[in-house]
Design goal:
cell membrane, globular, mainly alpha, cell shape, Rod shape-determining protein MreD, membrane, about 180 residues
Length: about 180
């Protein structure tokens, strides 16, 4: 069924747009988002991928290749935004796996989607922090990371989830 739907072409276009919008938000609002010592990181790509997994669970008629698209988004994200190949190419598919695992046990709706997205953003940021610590890109203490990066990033991304959930759901329903 996936092969016959508009979602086959619409999903990658939306993913690419979210990649661009992530960069645009970070560039335009960099003064506000990256004010020392805090940092808010936009993860609209993760929002698009998580919503794909959530809305896929709503209709069991087809299964999208979300892990492949997550890996492709990870490659682009790594090469364009981080400059280090291999961090997000691993993290994004892990997030899809975790989301599908949670959706199997939690009936997807707005509030459970918010909880799933909260967990996913925490996993993305924590794995990114651990990876950058492992390759000596940062020397930030764990408590400093929790307060100055994870907290503001969660606040920003949860607000974006609340604002964009219903428009993204409308786009998915239109593409199906």
């Amino acid at each position: 069924m996936y092969r016959l739907s508009k979602l086959r072409f619409g999903f990658p276009v939306g993913l690419f747009l979210m990649l661009l919008i992530d960069g645009a938000i970070s560039q335009v609002f960099s003064v506000h988002m990256f004010r020392a010592p805090t940092a808010m990181v936009s993860h609209l790509v993760v929002l698009w991928l998580v919503c794909g997994a959530i809305f896929e669970a709503d209709s069991s008629a087809f299964e999208m290749p979300l892990a492949r698209w997550a890996a492709v988004a990870g490659v682009i994200f790594d090469l364009y935004y981080t400059g280090i190949f291999g961090i997000y190419i691993f993290i994004f598919p892990v997030v899809i796996y975790l989301t599908r695992l949670m959706v199997a046990y939690i009936r997807p709706n707005f509030l459970s989607g918010l909880l799933i997205y909260f967990i996913d953003i925490t996993v993305v940021e924590a794995l990114g922090y651990v990876a950058s610590r492992a390759i000596h890109l940062n020397d930030m203490a764990g408590s400093t990371f929790l307060v100055n990066t994870l907290g503001p990033t969660l606040a920003f991304n949860l607000a974006m989830f609340v604002l964009l959930y219903f428009p993204i759901r409308w786009v998915y329903n239109w593409l199906k």
